[in-house]
Amino acid sequence: MGSYLRWLKSNVSSTPLAHVASLLVLAVSVILEAINTIYIGQEVTFIAFIPVIIVIGYLEGRLVAIAATLLMAAAGLWMRRVLNAQLSAEDWTSAIFLLVSGGLIASVFHRLRQDLRGALEVAQARLAAIDAAESRYRWAFERAALGFANANRHGELLQSNRRLLEMTGYAEKELAQLNLEGLVLPDDRDAVRALLKDLDNGAASSAADIRVLRKDGKAFWARLALSSSRPDEASTESVFVVVDDISERRAAREALRAQKEWLDLALSAGRLGTWRIDIKEGTVAGSGKFWDILGMPSKPVRSLEELSAVVHPADWPKLAASVKPSPAVNYDVEIRVRRMDGHVRWVALRGRQEEHGDRAMRIGVAADLTERRQTTLLRAAVKKSERIMLEDRHRFSNLFPVITALVKMINVPENDVAKYKEMLIDRIRTLESTHLILSRHSSLSGMLHDLVAQELQPFKETRDITISGPSLTVPSGVAESFAMILHELTTNSVKHGALGDSQGKVGVKWQFASDGAGDDLVFDWVESGRRKNSNVVRHGFGSMIIGVDGTPLVGHSPKLEISEYGLRYSLRLSRKEIEL
């Protein structure tokens, strides 16, 4: 097509052969007119020159055609003058008509020549664009990363690109002898037939995953896409074939599916549910196990406010805070939910915050902690019972030496046994009151002075005891623990120190370290008098209570100084411990 247009364009322009033909036609016309006029005596009309002008106008340009017209008009007038000796008005009219006709003919042919040349240039430009597009298509077709082929309606391969040859291992001529069904495994040939049938039913394209069989017998997974191209006014139909190797993609998908199955199995075995909170939308999506833990019917997505029906009001702020953007990456809260069956369950929500596009999401897992918490509480209760039993055992073991010491400290007044019994029973009852305070496990709070005075009450009449300090009320837990420390100091003093010596003195005082609002309370227990076994420091349950070997039962920074002539014990209580 391009060569034909180039030939046609070259023939539109004048050539030497055209010039020769034009001169011959003009010469022959003039000679014939002269012969007819001079020798035969027959005048040739001017209109007979018009065909000659048309021929010259077709072969030559406008100027040559006009010049030939002038020449023929002049030749005709000269011959008529030779024949008739003069020119008539009719001759001049005919000559002028010939000139006008020749000019028009030359102009018309000139315009037609220009239009034809312009049309040829446009056609040539379009043809060049088509050639360039075809060249780019062929370049892309041959160098594409996907396998491309052209086939007919029956699936016969007509042309294949380089990539398809590499994928299948065939040479181009070998592949041209096959069809699409011969390139796939027998089990997948029905899928290829279905794709071709879809094109027959009018579908523009159709695709499926099939296994392509290489020349060496190995198979690989590929995405086969067929699209039809039905030329206008044509009875044949071509099929464009695209083959994409998806072996790695499919292997990755299978691996991902296997990992998901393992993850689902792990979550199921661990009785965990998955959840996702869209911070922007304020919605919660969860797995079936997640909604089961909350005691709610399974649903793909719920608004966060819907969970308020089951979440404990005291724990709702923890969950509501999850829809607020936070710089913290990890998310870990424990909430209580009241299920529809009335049971209260502890649920842990653990996850992290991530960005998905322009959305901030919190994703994680949910676990039912109720059984674990119940086990923890049960263990704590058992440990507390064991501790109480140990404390009671220790207290009872210390009770009898104290009673013995009381008996020894009280002399019989004037050999009055009744009076002696009365005094002894009074001291024992005082000791019983202290013991009851230590044995009480309900809420206990009281004045610090009363706790000290109650513990030392049995010895106030027989020993030199001083108690001083500001009036303070301590909370229940601190009061019970502090009473145990007092009891331990008293018992130790009875066995080894001032309370076991008739000349012993005990001074107890407490005061704030300074006037600061956050200062500690400093408690001092000071004994003076000869001690028994002053060089022996025992490390038992009592030492653990007052903190000789570490942290005391209450307070901090304990100090114990023992010498042959006394004992000093110091303890600090923080503001948080002594404030109600």
TrEMBL record:
Q: Which residues cross the membrane?
A: 12-32, 38-56, 63-80, 92-109
Reported EC number(s) for this entry are 2.7.13.3
Q: Which CDD domains match?
A: PAS
Protein origin, superkingdom:
Bacteria
InterPro entries, per the entry: HATPase_C_sf (IPR036890), PAC (IPR001610), PAS (IPR000014), PAS-assoc_C (IPR000700), PAS-like_dom_sf (IPR035965), PAS_fold_3 (IPR013655), Sig_transdc_His_kinase_HWE (IPR011102)
Locate the coiled-coil region(s) and give their ranges: none
> What protein name is recorded for this chain?
Blue-light-activated histidine kinase
